[in-house]
Amino acid sequence: MIQIKATGNWRRDPGKNHHGFWLLSPNIIYGKAMMIGRNRMEGKFIVLEGIDKSGKTTLSQSIFSKLVAMNMDVVLTHEPTEHIDEGLGILNNLDKDEYLILTAMFLRDRLWHNRIIEDNLKRKRIVICDRYTLSTMAYQGVFLKELFHDTESFYSWMTSTLSLSHIQPDLTIFIDFNSDMFRERFNSSGKLKIFEKADYLKSVYEIYKESVRRGLFSKEFLIIPGNSSMEKTLELSFKKIMEL
Fold first, then answer.
1. Greater model confidence, 76 or 200
2. Distance CA 132, CA 179 (A)
């Protein structure tokens, strides 16, 4: 039994296929094209980014399903992968100066993941990834930024370090969903995880915005307002994807 991310929640599956989608690994889903021939989008790497509750996971799955319906060879994956999930239990016990350890964990996970991404790109498949390098930049950067004397040193060091485990996406879709929107959408009395606290997400969002403004870690960006409907978000995303 292995886990797949097929509908926005983790669920179990015997391992061969799920509604026509072949499982390449516990966190990779492959939608096999049924028609002979290739398309001009072959071998494209598309990343979706945004803070928690922004809708990027739902969007990534919608894009994947739509491309499969168009008979395109497409792979849906995400970060962090299952290789890091167990290690995330240390989060609440880390001191701020120990977040270099956590960053190293994410980079190690990405180096493994990159082999899967590169293999599928070489096979001329479209790879859709829910979170990638910009997530590490923003989420771990909030704590690492405090180790630097100035903003430019922080962005320079992070850019150089994260580039060591980075494959340049052809397109990054950034959902511009801020911490105020998060508070409005997240209506729960349950305890928030460290990566879901509104004050923390505000700082994450600021690094996201600045990184996108600087054009870091992607050939091209599509910025979608966070208050857009899912239908409009999918429409804008798909239009841009079809232009690649």
1. 76
2. 20
